[in-house]
Specification:
The structure is a single chain. The protein is an alpha/beta fold. The protein has a single domain, classed as Glycerol-3-phosphate (1)-acyltransferase (3-Layer(aba) Sandwich), CATH 3.40.1130.
Length: about 220
């Protein structure tokens, strides 16, 4: 039996919320996130696509917006994000990605909004950073913030990124890194050499952040 998309969406949102309610989440270096927010400084949370599940529940008082694929799967994710007070703009590397980034940049300039970017989404290659977060930092002056997430008990979906779905009551560690300086200064232009250097730096920082946290992680 095939359920209507709206029913699928509601069902998955309910399952997601139920799992999140059981997770034992510990946040490392959360203080820096709250300090930057209190100072009115915008952050761009940068993480790998497969680790997104467990980050959404910890937005709390922050106003966060993510870029979501304009697809049926993206529609489900949009509803899940909304259930946790996280907004969405629609775009991908192949459909409206630049427009989505410009829309998000405009929103961030108007009010205190933080962005959440899955660096290797929506289709990979896995754990290889793309330019979206860097472009956004250049346009807004926001601070890049690397994030890694460890889920002790989980299973992987059969997707390109091996997306992690926590098992109920699993221990989760969310590790926030050190924010970069003002995005307009750290990434003064969007020329290829500047973006390539920034991507290498971001990938290196994410790998280091995962050491002693993610099994098998190498610097």
């Amino acid at each position: 039996m095939h359920l209507p998309p709206s029913v699928n969406s509601a069902l998955l949102t309910g399952i997601y919320s139920a799992i999140c309610a059981t997770l034992r989440i510990r946040e490392e270096n959360r203080k820096v996130v709250d300090e930057y927010h209190a100072q009115g400084r915008r952050l761009i949370f940068c993480l790998w696509h497969d680790e997104l599940f467990s980050l959404i529940p910890v937005s709390r008082q922050l106003k966060v917006v993510a870029i979501v694929s304009p697809s049926s799967d993206g529609a489900v994710l949009t509803r899940i994000l909304a259930s946790k007070n996280v907004g969405a703009v629609h775009g991908s590397s192949t459909r409206g990605g630049v427009r989505a980034l410009l829309t998000l940049a405009h929103m961030m300039k108007k009010e205190l909004i933080h962005a959440c970017i899955t660096l290797d989404g929506p289709l990979g290659p896995r754990h290889k950073a793309k330019e979206g977060a860097l472009f956004l930092a250049n346009r807004t002056g926001a601070h890049i913030l690397p994030v890694r997430i460890f889920v002790k008990h989980h299973f992987h979906l059969p997707t390109w990124d091996k997306f992690q779905v926590p098992l109920p009551f699993s221990k989760v560690v969310i590790r926030f890194g050190t924010p970069w300086g003002n995005g307009g200064e750290e990434i003064p232009n969007i020329e290829t050499p500047t973006l390539e250097r920034a991507k290498v730096r971001l990938e290196d920082e994410l790998h280091r952040l995962g050491q002693d946290l993610i099994p098998g992680e190498k610097a």
